[in-house]
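re: ur question from yesterday

yeah so i grabbed the chain u mentioned. its 107 aa long if i counted rite. heres the sequnce exactly as i have it in my notes:
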Amino acid sequence: MAKMMMTLLVALTAGWSGWCASTSGVTGGHDVETASGGQATLHRDRFLSVRPGEFGVINDAGATGTPLDATNNYWGARGGPRDAAHNPTGRGTPVSAGVTYRPWLTR
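ran it thru and got these structure tokens back, copy pasting raw so excuse formatting
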């Protein structure tokens, strides 16, 4: 329960500020993470970089859960976020399964 509350607080802060800084220590180093059953909407944010092996946005429910709406964000590259399944040539900040990111901002 505490993890979900902290995660939602981070998501709301990111959405309101227009900037998403690393939340290392709160969600394991990912910029925004929702716990199973949590819902967040992220728009007009900038995800610029994370450490190798981490995600800018991660949905713990994965592809089978409720999608996390992260449309209209800038992912650090014009080609959008890196998504191994649906945008493998994207050079931006990676996203996990279960994150809706199309359309994205190009700057």
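noticed a couple things. The longest helix spans residues 2-17. also Strands lie at 32-34, 57-59, 68-69, 99-100.
anyway ttyl
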